[in-house]
Write a structure and sequence with these properties.
Number of helices: 9
Helix content: over 70%
Shape: globular
Strand content: under 5%
Number of strands: 0
Radius of gyration: 19 Å
Order of helices and strands: HHHHHHHHH
Distance between the termini: 41 Å
Largest sheet: none
Number of domains: 1
Length: 210
Amino acid sequence: MPQQLLPFLLVVLVLTVTPGPDMALVLRNGVRGGVRLAWWTGLGCCAGIAVHATAAVIGLSALLAASAAAYTVVKLAGACYLVYLGVMALWSTRRKAARPDEPVDSTPAPTGPATAFRQGVLSNVLNPKIALLFLTLLPQFIGADEPRMATSAVLAVVFLALAVLWWRVFTLLVAMLGRVLSNQRVRTTFERVTGAVLIALGIRVALEGV
């Protein structure tokens, strides 16, 4: 058991609940398709984090951090993906506005679990800041007398376990929010807001370090 597990848990808890692209994406999918899609999106986010966690433990993330070109490519790809998701959300609300008399329940959910999961995975895999987070965070909680790789692996698993727990709780909160957003006009407005947030986050990611 890592010697500094408790302070690590506190830090991870703060990082996990801090709003960001993942939260905007889970909210967007939850509002569009309900708790099930929000949950699958959250699981996708966790899978993307697991990729970076594994890369950090075995040392691959250091290669990404050391290469400015590779880091920039991944960063821009992630920024473009966030903007794409935001634009698609806005486009979806535009189509709904063009058919105001169409019943709310007459169309199927706009996406499925596989798509929601993939969106969560890509939004995290294409975020090099997560790789840097693991590179800088994990070593701070590894004692000098502890095996580096084994302790890093344990801390990474703890990080992922907390992430899964958080998204389970968050998706239940989305269910409560869904009742508030049962009105189509309110739901459309909320989706436009989350779409704009995703675009803004994508632009911010692209401009970081410029």
